[in-house]
Fold this protein.
Amino acid sequence: MADLHSADWLVPVVGDPIPNGALLEADGVITAVGRRADLRKLDHDHEQHWDGVIIPGLVNAHTHLQYSHMAAVGSRRYADFPEWVTHFQAAFAEPGHDWYAAALEGARQAIATGTTAIADVVTNPEALPVLRNIGVKGIAYWEFLSWANARSPESARTHAEKMIKEHQDLPIGLSPHAPHTLDEDVLVELTDIGHEFGLRRHVHVAESLSEVEFIGSGSGPHDQALRQWGIDDFALQRQQGSGLRPVDYLDRLVRLGPDCHIAHGIYTDADDRAVLRRRRTVVALCPRSNATISLDEAPVADYLREGNLVAVGTDSLASTPSLDLLADLAELAAIATRQGYRESDLDNRLLEAATLGGSKAMGLDQTANPVGALASGWSADFAVVAVNEPRQVVYEGAGQVTATVIDGRVRHRATSR
Ligand SMILES: [Zn+2]
């Protein structure tokens, strides 16, 4: 069975937008991309014409699907990071969470807004199989949060090896939460395990000023919070900080690389961004989540101008109003413009970040049938956005996805508009 999918426009991301474009799909894989008039001459069984613009399936490069029932926390604004943490922890501690159901619901919302692959950070094992079970691509990153080998019944290594063995059938990775919430020995251990087992890593980095202060000087609100929990022996506390900024600190400790991507990257200077480029480490920007928590805006214009590898994440419904990645693209466009980015390629660059950028963050561009662009040999993963022309996808695409297709199968179709 070969199906032709055509639309007013098709944006391959790896080439110029095609008016009256189409793609030919067989067995879940794209066999040709071009003008509808040309592709119609090729053998096919059926044509589906879509109103709007066909784009590659969106890749959400940072979220926590299991918090999708905590939307009450993410639907308001906070004065600062500690205030958000207090509300998040109170909601997390409430009894009766069904993490599997919540993650499944989040995945459904993601599919309905054009997402076909997800970097999902998981803290409760029930949520680990969700990507596989619902048929979305990506990686479930098992999170290590506030882990101290000296205080835990088992070492991070023992625990990680057990989790890896128990979930060999799932696409998993490792998520050492952040460079300030894990002691140095754990960060090093998890990096070693990642290399040994060939697992990708994903870390929250440079997200809050309390993180920056703690890594630099070993002091501040994060140090005080650790001491309240009886922790006063983190290497950074003993050494009064590293004197470094988060990205540089983490790179010197565990060496970043293309097998690891970071979330947020708000507090980076030109040297940090150069480190990320040198290591080919992708940064997943999460602008609406940052706004919810009243964090500063990431240096979006600098990342684009300097040529960093950039992806886009929504973060979880506990810190953002929706899992619609196109809403984050509109926000990024506004931020970059405010920051003085004037190049005409802004919308192309941002759409690339939300598709191919996220794919690179998880190595999905290196698989047998890669994702993140529309080209022959790539997976037939795409979304249809009901706008008139490609540039509107970034600025007006939020809430406008009318169809989502994964491996050639229609997984979402808007019933009425
Ligand atoms: Zn996060």
User: Anything to note?
Assistant: The chain has two domains: 2-56+372-413, 58-366. The pocket of zinc ion is lined by residues 62, 64, 121, 204, 263, 315 (CB under 6 Å).
